[in-house]
Design a protein that fits this description.
By secondary structure, this protein is of the alpha/beta class. Helices cover 19% and strands 29% of the residues. Helix 1 (29-47) packs across helix 2.
């Protein structure tokens, strides 16, 4: 399975950060579009026109995924999954459990998991393992924002748009504030006026 830590795990992607540090930093609409186009070319070159099954995580990854798949050459088939996070007790100790619906049949397929934010990596690692149970021909991970400082599992993205600090929270481009607003913003803003965290659950 791809997506594990290795010297070549980023497939040549560069660590691109916001130009402005601190509150008010942004990734502009044009900068996001340019980076997504670069990722599309990079991914298309890797698969060389073969059919690609794209698994899109809801509810944060849909805007990024919609733009990304339109930059891909060849046949693309989309699948959608939504995680259910539950806090349960295991032998008297609290534990967070990640549940997904039935995974699609991807036997022998080239599969790309697309999500908006990679932080702890627990959710994506769990889903990659679930998808791997279908014995795909290849399995890779693409994310818009990579926050490696708080990684809790041995996982790296194969493709990423931007690397950011774990303390930075972003609103816009499909990411919502705690009150649910901001998903429709064309740019990503750090320290936006909408109150609360933009990523409502750490991934």
């Amino acid at each position: 399975m791809s997506g594990r830590k290795s010297a070549s795990s980023t497939r040549g992607s560069q660590a691109i950060k916001a130009n402005v540090k601190g509150r008010g930093a942004t990734f502009s609409e044009s900068r996001i579009a340019g980076r997504v186009a670069e990722l599309g070319k990079e991914i298309s070159q890797a698969y060389q026109g073969r059919r690609l099954d794209v698994v899109i995580t809801l509810d944060r990854g849909f805007v990024f995924a919609a733009d990304l798949i339109r930059e891909l050459d060849g046949t693309v088939v989309c699948h959608f999954v939504r995680e259910d996070l539950r806090d349960i007790e295991d032998s008297g100790r609290p534990r967070r459990e990640v549940l997904f619906g039935a995974a699609p049949d991807l036997r022998g397929r080239d599969v790309l998991l697309v999500d908006a934010v990679l932080e702890s990596g627990v959710t994506q690692d769990f889903l990659l393992r679930r998808l791997g149970e279908s014995s795909p021909g290849s399995l890779r991970l693409a994310v818009l924002l990579d926050k490696p400082e708080k990684r809790r599992v041995d996982l790296e993205s194969d493709y990423f748009g931007f690397k950011t600090a774990s303390k930075e929270v972003w609103v816009g481009y499909g990411l919502a504030a705690a009150n649910g607003t901001g998903r429709n913003l064309r740019q990503l803003s750090n320290g936006a006026k909408t109150t609360g965290k933009s990523e409502r659950r750490k991934k």
